[in-house]
Each structure stands twice: as C-alpha cells, then as structure tokens.
Amino acid sequence: MNKLTYIPLLLLFTIGSGCTKDNFDDTDFLNTGTAPTGEAVHFNITDDNSGLVTITPNSAGATAYDIYFGDATTEPVRVLPGQSTTHIYKEGTYPVKVIASGITGQKAETTKQLAVTFRAPESLTITANANLHDLTLSAAALYATGGYKVYFGDAANEVPVLIAEGAHVTHTYAKAGKYQVKVEALSGGAAITTATKEVTIYNALTLPMTFEQPDVSYAWGDFGGSLTTVIPNPYPGGINSSATVGKIIKTKDQTWAGNFISMSSPIDFTGNKKFRVKVYSWRPGLRILLQLERSGDNTFMENMEAVTTKANTWEELTFDFSGKITDNNKKLQNILFFLDNGTQGDGSQNYTILFDDIVLTN
C-alpha cells in the first residue's frame, strides 16, 4: 500500500509570498541627510610655557574634522571623531577654525578664539664664579623657556647677552671692582622675571702679600680645624705698623691643621728663594712650617720650618728654600702654614699667630 503525503496549499502560498528581492540601489536617504550640529572646540593649554595646546573638536553627526590652527600654519589637520590634535603656539590670540564633515558630505564650520599666555618664570637663581677679571655666569629658573638676558653692569647702554637654559657665559672686566650683574629670565612671551647679584672682581694676588690692597682677595682656606681670618692689626708698632694682618688659630681638631692660599700664577724663583714673614706670637718656641705646593695636586711640594723667638711682639722669620728650589719647573703656586705640625692644638693663644708681609727675597 502506498502512503501519500499532502502539503496544504495555504502553506505553500505563504512560503512563496514571503520571498522578495532586496533593492540596494536606493540612495534617496542621502538627499535627506543633514550637516553636523552642535559644533564645539575644547582647548587644553599646557601651563609650562611650552606653548603646547591640545585641540579636541566635537559635534553631532560628524565623521571627520579639518582644523585650521589660526597661525602661520596654512594647511589644516584632519581629526576623526573622539580624537585630538596638538599644536605649539607662541604667546598670543588665534582664531582656530574647525570644519566638521558629515556622512553626506555636508559641512558645518565654527571658529573659536584661543588665547595663549605664558606665566612669569619662577625661582630665578644666578651662579657666578670669578677668576681674577673673568666672570663665568649661568642662570636657572622655572618656566624660562625663552632663555636669559645677562647684563654685566660695566657699561652704559649695555647690550645684554642671551644664553639658553643650562648654558653659561664668560665675561672679562677691564678693572677690579664691585659690579651689579642683572639677569632677566624670559618666559617666551611678555612676562619677565629679574634678579641681580653683586660680584667682586679682584686683581692678581702676587708677592709681596701685604693684606693692604682692597682690590686683591686675601681669602685663605683652612683644613684640619685651622681658622684663618684677615683682621685689623691689634698690635701695631715695632717692625709692623700696617693696618691689616692675617690671623691663624689652631684648634684641637687635627694635629696637621693648617691653611692655604693660591697665588694667581706660579711663584717665580728665578732670582729669589727666601721667604720672610712678619709674625706675632704669644710664646717663643712655636714652630711654624711654611709649605709650597703646585696648585691642583700634591705631586710637588717643598717646606721649611722656622721657630718664634719672642713673645707678645712682632718679629721677622726667614724660610730659606735655596737648597730645595733651583728653578721654576715644579710650578709651585700654593702657600701653606702649619703651627706646631704634629702637635695637638687647643685654640688658645699658645696656638695662635698673627702674620703679615709675606715677601720673597734674596
């Protein structure tokens, strides 16, 4: 027996009527599209005087933005929705124009004024180091993106020298004296911060050393607990009536305590090889060691010792280097004094001397 399967005609009709052809050639919706709306531009200006600005456009229905920066840059930058672009500006006001494009190609334009203002530099410091008439100077400040103008203070209608951050400049003065150095820190815009520093320019330190020349630096260095100062002469008379003298005190810090000063150039021993020094001591028998060294290292040094013979009066001691120095090859430039070298000091007058008129003679 054959079994037949019947499909209702209503079902076949329904299936057949559900099959339709899609038409992808219909572009009428493009003719009804609209341009982007709600145009807006956001600026994020970096507060470090770099001039860096982040520009973020925004609108409804835009697929791309063309941004015109409003400065000397003529070509726009294209930015996609949700993205930003950056640009570096000088201080000033700029008309930033944004053209938004929609999916239909229709455009909307907006212009917004961008004001870029640089902050005044902060924490300006001046570093100045003098070597006789030569002054080396540098400056540092926050937000000084425009560099520094330097006025050295030794000329009328002075034209400043411009230096960059981290750089230095050297200036040579015609004569010794005190000068007011002025530095202007530049923001890169209108804001300027100014600072001044007084510098002292000295003439060369040469022999004889008298402590009487105001245009010469008699700054001694100390080590091991020695204390050296330049003071008014407290005991004028006898062989020394000068107004100013040196003073050395040996404390109880180190047995090898001493002081030093560096001459402006190596000492010339061509004809003279004896040092004579006026000394005021509070006890006889105080050993004074005069040592000569080459500047910058201890490779070459020579020393001679003399002993005080009087108390509470000025006397002249002689340090004879004739048997130790024959020429200038060692380039000896530093002069050092030690009081009772190898013995503990106590800071009292027993370990104190006044000294003056250091003379190289024959």
From TrEMBL:
Signal peptide range in chain numbering: none
Name assigned to this protein: PKD domain-containing protein
SMART domains hit by this protein: PKD
UniProt domain PKD: residue ranges: 148-201
